Amino acid sequence: MSLLQIDGLGITFGGLKAVQDVSFKVEPGEIVSVIGPNGAGKTTLFNMISGVYQPGTGRVALNGQDVTGMAPYLLAARGMSRTFQNLQIFQNMTVLENAIAGFHLQERGAVLADLLNLPGARRRARAAEAGARVLLARVGLDRAADRQAGNLSYGSLKRLEIARALALRPKVLLLDEPAAGCNAVETEEIDHLIAEVAASGVAILLVEHDMKMVMRISDHIVVLDHGEKIAEGTPAQVSRDPAVIAAYLGTEAADADS
Question: Most buried among 38, 142, 187, 238, using CB within 10 Å?
Fold first, then answer.
């Protein structure tokens, strides 16, 4: 039984088949990348898997349980976390406060206890802060904890978003273009972070346009074109597929493969 199983997933918008009959699986500790040109349906696929969109066809199973179309907050409670292509950071809050926000599902106390600052509420707040500081150290942002998030570099903000997603203690982490807009140094930092998270046993599902990064860190690759899966396999297999090279990778494939 796979940790994440996608079977025949599809969705139609106004008669347009945005995604159709896509199937694959992700195992614990595995990095699976979804690639394809703009408009191929990658983010739409992510939105169906993560509960943002209700699929028209197909099934999503998490740890053997059918979670198709389940609300994102319920999926998060079951072990699925996600980052977005566009940053979802609280720019006017500190880095530490952003990380603490990721622990909201672990807040089980009554609202009144928080309003009155009762001992139980203070204990939960201390635990969330301690956990957030551990995650910031994990992503290399511990020294920036008290800085306003809006003052960080773009690459640091991407790592902060990953830290906040990890606060949910996910079994599966969906990363939508985590290196988009980053320079070479920032991309390498995110590259190492993703590999480290996967090595800890978390399943990673990744959408990314940086083909060198994809070929370097992926265990498995799924290729989409106009919403359909046209290829699937290891980086070596995909990079040598003539149709994939011609349509998506071009000379970048040869560079990444060398």
Answer: 238
